[in-house]
Write a structure and sequence with these properties.
The complex is a heterodimer.
Chain A (H helix, E strand, L loop, with lengths): L9 E2 L4 E5 L5 E5 L1 H7 L2 E5 L6 E2 L3 E8 L3 E6 L3 E6 L2 H4 L3 H4 L8 E5 L11 H9 L1
Antiparallel strand pairs in A: 1-2, 2-3, 3-9, 4-6, 5-8, 6-7, 8-9
Chain B lengths: L7 H11 L4 H4 L23 H13 L5 E2 L13 H6 L2 H4 L11 H18 L3 E2 L6 H15 L7 E5 L4 H11 L5 E5 L23 E6 L9 H10 L3 E6 L20 E5 L15 E5 L12 E5 L5 E5 L6 H4 L12 H37 L6 E2 L8 E5 L4 H10 L2 E2 L2 E2 L10 E5 L6 H15 L1
Helix pairs in contact in B: 6-11, 7-8, 11-13
The chains are: A alpha+beta, B alpha/beta.
C-alpha cells in the first residue's frame, strides 16, 4: 500500500491533511494512507459552502465500495469552497489525494490553530505506532 | 403452555445459581405501576380454540355486504386480472422479504428491479426504491428526505396543502414533528377545490424546505401542478408530488411538471393489483431525481454484471442504510412490501402502458358519465368547479352521513363523508367511479340517490 506523506502539510489523527494557502485559508483532504484504507471511492458528500464548522466536527462523508466514513474539519472556521470536481469524479481522492482530490477549504477562525496539528514527521510516527 | 424449553426445576436451578428468588425479581427495575396484572385486563375475552375462532370469523365474514362500492378516498377498487395473484401465490414469491443474499435471490431481485424501472418511467423520475409501507408513510419519508436534500434551507418548514389526504397529513405529523420539522398548512379555494396559488405569496420571502403537491388532490380535483412546481424551484424548495399511480397513465408525469419537474414523487400503490382491505397491506412508492438518490430511504436494487459478463441483480447504494451507517443512516427503513409489489409489477407488465391508459381513461369516462347524470338531479350539485380524474365532491341537501346510511340500505356504498375530516363539509360526499362500475351501476346510483332525496 502506498503511503506518501508530503512535507509542509499538517496532519490529524483521523487522517486528514491541511494545507495553509497564501490567502490564509486552509485546504483539507484525506491522506494517502486513508484513501488506501478506504479502497475505491464512489461518492463524496461535500459540506455546504458558508457552513460554520467547529474543530473536529464531521462535515463530509466519503463512501467507498467497502464503507462510508465521516471526515472531520481539523480546524474551526467557515467552509469557503468545496471540490465540485468530486461530484462527477470521486476517484480523484484515490488517484491524487494531495492534489486534485482535495475535499474542502476552510477560512480558519484562528490562524494559529493549524500549528496545533501534527507535522509530516509526527504523522509518520503516529502511523507507525 | 408457552413454548419455553426450560422445566421448572431448571429455572429454579438457574435462579439459585445467580442468587435471585424469582423471575419477577429479575425485572424489579420496572416501576410497579407500569406492570399490568393479567387477571385485571379489561375488555380482553378468554382464549378460544382454533375451531371457535374459525366459527367466529366465518360469522363475521357473513356480515360483509359487498355492496356496490363508490368510495375512493385513497383506496380504489380496480379489476385485478386473475393471473396476478396466481403468480404472486407461487412459493418462490412467498418469502419476498429483503433479499440480502443476492446469489440466492436473483428472481426476487430482478422483479424489484423491473418494478423500479416501471415506476421511474411512470413518474418520469430517474430512480425508484423497492417500495415502502404505504402512501401515507411514503409521504412522511419524502418529507424527511426533502429536508435532508435541501442544503440551502435551514428552516425545516414544509408547506402542506389542505387538499392532501387528511390521513396522510396526520401520519406525516406523527412521524416528522418530533424531528423539529414544522408543517404549515395551505388553504384551498372554496370554489375550485384546489390550493390557492395566492396563499404562497405569504411565504415568498421565507425559508421553505419543501412544498407538497397532491395530484389529483383529495377532492379528486386537478391542482395547478406546473405553477406549484415552479414556485418551489424558484424559492429553493424541494417539490414533493403525491400522486395516484393510475392517473399517471393520463396525466402529465411529475418529472415534467413545471420547468424542472418535481423532485420527489410518492404515493399509494394499492390501485395496481391490490384488493381493498381495511388496514392493508398496501404499499408506498417513492421515486426521485438522480441528484437526490443518496438521500432516498428504502432498498434500491441495481443491475450489474458478474465476472463472466452476465447480468445480475444486487442491493445497491447500501451506504445510505443503517447496517452500514448506523445512527447516521439516511435510510432507516429496510422493509419493502415485497409481495404486494410483486402483484403491482405483474399488474403493470400484464396491462402495459396501453392497458394502463385504457383503465385510466375508462375510470375518467365513467366518472364523467356519473357526474353528467347527477347534474340532472335537482337539490344536489357538484361542489367544486374544476377538472377531475375519477373522484368528485357531491354537495347534498342532507348530511352525507345520513345519505350514506340510506344508500347502504340499498346495498350501495355511497361515498366518503367529508364532514368526518373537514369542518363545515358535513353535506359533502366524495364519490369515486372506476372501470369496475358499469353504465347500469351508474344508473342505479343516480336512481337510488333521486329516490332518497325526493
Amino acid at each position: 500500500m502506498s503511503n506518501n506523506v508530503p512535507e509542509g502539510l499538517r496532519y490529524t489523527k483521523s487522517h486528514e491533511w491541511v494545507k495553509l494557502e497564501s490567502n490564509g485559508n486552509c485546504t483539507i483532504g484525506i491522506t494517502d494512507h486513508a484513501q488506501g484504507m478506504l479502497g475505491d471511492i464512489v461518492f463524496v458528500d461535500l459540506p455546504a459552502v458558508d457552513k460554520a464548522v467547529a474543530a473536529e466536527e464531521e462535515c463530509c462523508t466519503i463512501e467507498s465500495v467497502k464503507a462510508a466514513t465521516d471526515t472531520y474539519s481539523p480546524i474551526a472556521g467557515t467552509i469557503v469552497e468545496v471540490n465540485t470536481k468530486l461530484e462527477s469524479s470521486p476517484n480523484l481522492v484515490n488517484n491524487d489525494p494531495y492534489g486534485d482530490g482535495w475535499l474542502f477549504r476552510v477560512k480558519p477562525k484562528n490562524a494559529d490553530d493549524i500549528n496545533k496539528l501534527m507535522t509530516a514527521e509526527e504523522y509518520k510516527k503516529f502511523e507507525e505506532e | 403452555m408457552p413454548f419455553i424449553p426450560h422445566t421448572d426445576d431448571e429455572i429454579r436451578e438457574m435462579l439459585t445459581a445467580i442468587g435471585v428468588d424469582s423471575i419477577e425479581d429479575l425485572f424489579d427495575e420496572i416501576p410497579r405501576n407500569l406492570i399490568i396484572d393479567e387477571k385485571k385486563l379489561q375488555g380482553i375475552p378468554n382464549a378460544m380454540s382454533e375451531m371457535e375462532v374459525a366459527r367466529l370469523i366465518k360469522n363475521r365474514a357473513a356480515k360483509d355486504k359487498n355492496g356496490l362500492c363508490f368510495v375512493g378516498a385513497g383506496a380504489y377498487e380496480h379489476h385485478i386480472p386473475a393471473p396476478i395473484w396466481e403468480i404472486v401465490g407461487r412459493g418462490e414469491f412467498m418469502t419476498a422479504y429483503t433479499p440480502y443474499q443476492a446469489e440466492a435471490s436473483q428472481g426476487g431481485l430482478q422483479l424489484l428491479y423491473e418494478y423500479q424501472t416501471m415506476m421511474a418511467s411512470l413518474t418520469g423520475m430517474d430512480a425508484s426504491n423497492a417500495s415502502l409501507y404505504d402512501g401515507a408513510s411514503g409521504l412522511a419519508e419524502a418529507v424527511l428526505m426533502a429536508v435532508r436534500c435541501n442544503r440551502k434551507s435551514k428552516s425545516k418548514y414544509i408547506l402542506m396543502p389542505g387538499t392532501v389526504h387528511p390521513y396522510y397529513r396526520q401520519v406525516v405529523k406523527s412521524i416528522v414533528t418530533h424531528q423539529e420539522i414544522k408543517i404549515i398548512e395551505l388553504p384551498f379555494d372554496e370554489v375550485t377545490g384546489i390550493t390557492e396559488l395566492a396563499s404562497l405569496n405569504d411565504y415568498a420571502s421565507e425559508d421553505i424546505a419543501a412544498l407538497v403537491i397532491p395530484q389529483p388532490n383529495f377532492f379528486g380535483c386537478l391542482e395547478e401542478v406546473d405553477a406549484l412546481t415552479n414556485w418551489a424551484s424558484e424559492h429553493n424548495a424541494i417539490s414533493i408530488a403525491v400522486v395516484n399511480p393510475t392517473s399517471l397513465a393520463l396525466l402529465k408525469e411529475p418529472g415534467k411538471w413545471g420547468e424542472q419537474g418535481a423532485d420527489i414523487v410518492c404515493g399509494e400503490g394499492q390501485p395496481f393489483g391490490t384488493p381493498l382491505s381495511a388496514g392493508g397491506p398496501y404499499f408506498g412508492f417513492l421515486c426521485t431525481k438522480k441528484a437526490y438518490i443518496r438521500q432516498m430511504p428504502g432498498r434500491i436494487i441495481g443491475c450489474t454484471s458478474d465476472k463472466d459478463g452476465k447480468s445480475g441483480y444486487v442491493l445497491t447504494l447500501q451506504a445510505r442504510e443503517q447496517h452500514i451507517r448506523r445512527s447516521k443512516a439516511t435510510s432507516n427503513i429496510c422493509t419493502n412490501e415485497g409481495l404486494i409489489v410483486a402483484a403491482a409489477t405483474i399488474y403493470m407488465s400484464l396491462l402495459g402502458p396501453q392497458g394502463l391508459r385504457k383503465v385510466a381513461a375508462v375510470c375518467h369516462n365513467q366518472t364523467k358519465k356519473l357526474v353528467e347524470h347527477l347534474s340532472k338531479v335537482k337539490k344536489i350539485s357538484i361542489r367544486f368547479n374544476n377538472a377531475y380524474f375519477h373522484e368528485v365532491v357531491l354537495h347534498l341537501p342532507i348530511p352525507a352521513k345520513e345519505f350514506i346510511a340510506k344508500m347502504d340500505e340499498k346495498n350501495i356504498v355511497a361515498g366518503f363523508d367529508l364532514g368526518s375530516v373537514y369542518e363545515g363539509m358535513e353535506k359533502d360526499l366524495l364519490i369515486c367511479c372506476t372501470e369496475t362500475k358499469t353504465d347500469q351501476d351508474i344508473d342505479l346510483y343516480v336512481q337510488s340517490l333521486a329516490e332518497i332525496l325526493q
